[in-house]
Amino acid sequence: MLSAALRAVRPVAVRNMRRSTPSTAFRALSTTTPRFSGPAPPSLYGEGAKPGEIPSDEQQATGLERFQLLGEMEGIESFDVEPLDSSRVGTLEDPIKVFSLDTSRIVGCTGAPAESHELHWFTVTKEKNRRCPECGSVYALDFQGVEHHDAHHH
User: Fold this and answer.
1) Cα(12)–Cα(26) distance, rounded to whole angstroms?
2) Are 97 and 143 in contact (CB under 8 A)?
3) 44, 45, 49, 51 alpha-carbon torsion, rounded to 10°
4) Comparing C-alpha atoms, which of 84, 85, 91, 89 is closest to residue 105?
5) Cα(80)–Cα(117) distance, rounded to whole angstroms?
6) pLDDT tens, residue order, the chain (154 aa)
7) Are strands 130-131 and 96-100 parallel, antiparallel or unpaired?
């Protein structure tokens, strides 16, 4: 496909090389991305401190830390830190649902009732429910995200 595009542009490019004005024929092969997708998302980088000053958390926080800090400033809990339902043992027919915007989530089980055994960590995926090796409680992912949203990752 690239060779067909180059063959189509070559006669125009050769003709325009003789001119001193820049050609629009090569613009079709530009590697820079056009900015037609609307406004940029809000930055997760702080503005930093002025020279000679010590930056505050708000000024120097970046990434997820800044996301959490901005949420706290507006009174919003950025991350789900509430414990899962430990009043019952999840079964294969009625597992304990774990909300997630991703296709997998790490879950810690302390038993039912809570604190009845040592903490066990395991990963629950969209495709497969997981059972705690100690108490037998079953956990299932309640996936609420966008399907194949991370397909561009390598």
Assistant:
1) 9
2) no
3) -170
4) 84
5) 23
6) 444 444 554 554 445 445 545 555 545 555 555 555 666 666 667 777 788 988 888 888 888 888 888 888 889 887 777 777 777 888 899 999 988 888 888 988 888 787 888 889 999 998 889 999 888 899 999 888 777 655 555 5
7) unpaired
Q: Where are the alpha helices (DSSP H) in 18-152?
A: 57-60, 63-73
Beta bridge partners of 54: none
* Residue 54 to residue 68: CA distance in whole angstroms: 21
| Alpha-carbon span 126 to 111, nearest angstrom | 22
Q: How many CA atoms lie within 13 A of 117 on its CB side?
A: 14
What token pair was written down for 25?
């024929």
134 CB neighbour count, 10 Å cutoff: 14
Within the chain, residue ranges assigned H as helices are 2-17, 57-60, 63-73
For residue 153, give both structure tokens.
């990752």
pTM of the model: 0.52
